[in-house]
Amino acid sequence: MTADLSQIVKAYDVRGVVPDQWDEALAELFGAAFVQVTDADAIVIGHDMRPSSPGLSGAFARGAAARGADVTLIGLCSTDQLYFASGHFGLPGAMFTASHNPAQYNGIKMCRAGAAPVGQDTGLAEIRELVESWSDSGAPTPVEKPGTVTEHDTLTEYAGYLLSLVDLSSMRPLKVVVDAGNGMGGHTVPTVFASLPVTLVPMYFELDGTFPNHEANPLDPANIVDLQERVRSEGADLGLAFDGDADRCFVVDERGEGVSPSAITALVAARELAKHPGGTVIHNLITSWSVPEVVRENGGEPVRTRVGHSFIKQEMANTGAIFGGEHSAHYYFRDFWNADTGMLAALHVLAALGSQDGTLSELVAQYDRYRGSGEINSTVDDQSARTAAVKAAYASQPGVTLDELDGLTVTTENWWFNLRPSNTEPLLRLNVEARDEETLAKVRDEVLALVRAK
Fold first, then answer.
1. Where are the alpha helices (DSSP H) in 94-138?
2. pLDDT at residue 2 in the model
3. Residue limits of the Alpha-D-phosphohexomutase C-terminal domain (predicted)?
4. What superfamily does domain 14-153 belong to in CATH?
């Protein structure tokens, strides 16, 4: 019977419940299909700490080797560590993780050599077709000379490479609380931080894919409460929270207050522009006004894109950008093969804070200039109709500009908002920014009244 992959093959990756939606037999077919589509004679494979990850990645390796590819297993790793291996060795790669999803989920993030993404338009659709075909007719006949499977731990090389990209030589001692959420940050942070003048206070570093303490999704404020309390109780200089596969990093200041990813984007952009004068910096359309302002102030060229890593990475490649940031705490670096790495962003924050005597809240104040609502979700029956109603309400107002690069963005001199439909749920996502809290509240409430009107 042909496998139905429509529920697990997403726009940029494979993700679903194990074993209900996919299992090791399908993983083996994905391995074979990946090699065939990428025409690879060698690949690298890594996995996270989920209970199903070793079996699934091993099955993928068998499928890849049966098609003639030599496989290097790098074992437990963060997603950005897999990207490092892909870039460092110049090989296509596959990472077994479901990021911040619950324990019963797993998935595959695939890339071509140099960490170039594999998505629907860049090979994933062909991989799906092959797997569906083979699940119906049987796996392809193994090639005459199957590939080898070897192991290579890249953690030390990964840490060394990241540390080579940031000048930490003048950093003062800092006390840092890190919440790994029982995810891969617990594996990577001790090695990356080992040589730094840091007193590390670890939280939930035990690798446990059942996530016994909280979801490994720091985007949800409920999941950083423990970190905020610990930063305050320890009198720490800052806190860092990583998601399950440790490719995203969230920052908490010395007061236990969350630092906007837009402010981190602006801070890192300024530092990257000091290294690469005149460079281009990518930001998505719901990052703060602060980001393009800081980029211009530091002699750079800001470029605005749609939300989503595929758009960011594409623009990075098109423009030769030195850096890119998203509101979701994904940070992309030209020096890291245009891939995202929360760890490198964290090192920039440590370097910036450690090179001066002030607090983190004082440091980031210059990059956090406006008031933002955060993302507000509304369940609606008809996304298009609700969006059209909002557009009609603002289109004729004086001083208003509208664009539809990604959803609807409405901008004035004193505020802007973006209203975007979810691709997977009947939701509209609203982000508002204004010059003061009163204006923010007024615009937010006006738009929500239109979105939620009965």
1. 124-137
2. 66
3. 375-449
4. Alpha-D-Glucose-1,6-Bisphosphate, subunit A, domain 3 (3.40.120.10)
